[in-house]
Amino acid sequence: MAEIILNVQLRERAGTGGSREARRNGLVPGVLYGGNKAPVNIAVKANEFRKSLYTGKLLGHLVTLQYGDEKQSVIAKAVQFHPVTDEPVHFDLYRVDEHQLIKIEVPVHFKNHETSPGLKRGGTLEVIRHVVELACPADKIPEELVIDLAKHDLGDTIRISEVKLPEGVRPAQDRDFVIANLKASASAQSDAGDTTTAEA
After folding, report:
1. How many domains does the chain have?
2. Distance from CA of residue 73 to its chain's centroid?
3. How far apart are CA 58 and CA 135, in angstroms?
């Protein structure tokens, strides 16, 4: 089940004026899309929305939207922030069924930098994709994709096929794309050249 419940109110006014009115009343305005239904203008109390957002389990996760006694599984796909205060000012939700197959972007993280042979030799990690789009059931969205660098050396190419995905989860793109490369830095190349010269 979803860990977060958003208690929403319906907004009568749409557009910029309605959004400003909601924010004046201590609410964060949003729109509910999808499910072959018309978009619905909604709002959530600002303090409740911030609390849910800062758990890190709102964006890109299955959450429960509640209006009175009605509940709906949704995915929060976009949150807009104020450019100065960094406060949330608008959000978009999408209706889904719990087990519905959806496409969603998941962040990529790397571990064991300190034990990577390539990085220990002065190489650099060139990240091609910081996020990967996955196709997965709405209730099985991975928190992140973690790539272990412990066995990667200079010249290695890290592809999506290396990443162990949970059951029922697959890349949205049907090809073995590159996520990162382990490249030799200028200093590492210089050291390699010096070693070759000395050996000669």
Report:
1. 2
2. 18
3. 18
